[in-house]
Amino acid sequence: MKGKKNKGVSSHYFAKKPAVKPKYGLIRTYLRGRYFEFLTSSGVFSPKKIDLGTKLLIESAIIPEEGSVLDLGCGYGPVGITVAAFNPKLHVVMVDINELAIKLARKNAERNYVKNVEIKHGYLYEPVKNRKFNAILCNPPISAGKKVVHPVITEAPEHLTENGSLQIVVRSKIGGKALSKLMKETFGNVEVLARKSGYRILMSRKP
Fold first, then answer.
1. How many Å is the maximal CA-CA distance in the chain?
2. CA-CA distance, 22 to 189, in Å (whole number)?
3. 174-197 pLDDT, tens per residue?
4. pTM reported for the whole predicted model
């Protein structure tokens, strides 16, 4: 099964049951001036440190003061937990296909004393059918391929409120232009919120 990108068992972190033996770790970090701890493991994305793209998203995302936010592909939870911690009036929904990631995210929400989160297991938008959000945040699994990444963008409008935003991480040299073009085609608009170390944060708003 090595290298297969599907909804079942795979060595890829974007899988229901990654075919690796869990090797647990702990990340201690400051994000937006606050201390956080995150339990991690092999079989999830970036288990040794908060990757640069995720950190840039956390630091530059435009977050509503109230309403609801979707952290799509939450992994062990750094984006959703941080957003919830700094915006206690928000309801943050965190979704991931990876069962191990979901277990870690739940533990990390408790570990960081964050209660305004709802953590759900499932494939992309399936766990939040018929729900709309003021913002969707995502560091998409580029290595999982277009069949996974493109729906993150093309299906986003049906899950956004009016003027709601999709904010995603892209690599400037790995598909960044193509994803920017797709966002422009889908929403009619796209802008760059931040650039750093070869990463960009792109945002589109639902008209």
1. 45
2. 41
3. 778 999 999 999 999 999 999 999
4. 0.90
